[in-house]
Amino acid sequence: MKPYREAVEGMLERMRERAAEAELYKSQAAKLSHQLLEAQTQLSLAQQHLQEGRESKQLLESSLFKEIAKERESKQHLEAALASEREQRMQVEAKVVAVLQLLRMKEVELRVV
Questions:
Q1: What is the pLDDT of residues 61-94, one digit of tens each?
Q2: Which of 80, 12, 35 is nearest to 4 (CA)?
Q3: What is the dihedral of CA 98, 101, 105, 108, to 10 degrees?
Q4: Helix, strand, coil: what percent of the chain each, to 5?
């Protein structure tokens, strides 16, 4: 009966060892599960920050494009005003030249008389 008892005790010992291994694996699985949950949380936060960054970038780009359009429009108005001013200056210069010519002609007439 002793060999039978030793065999049973041996099986019980192996079962205890397997149970201890199972507890160890269970503990490791719980740790890994916790790490996975933390990683998923960090990933979710990173995705949220990335989305917020994209939205912020879009708002900035939109604002920048509007500002560029305003600057272009302002530049066009300034260029038009400058062209108008040049045209007026040329007209004034032409009138001054004409008046000077008239004055020279009158001066010549006055000398002749």
A1: 999 999 999 999 999 999 999 999 999 999 999 9
A2: 12
A3: 160
A4: 100, 0, 0
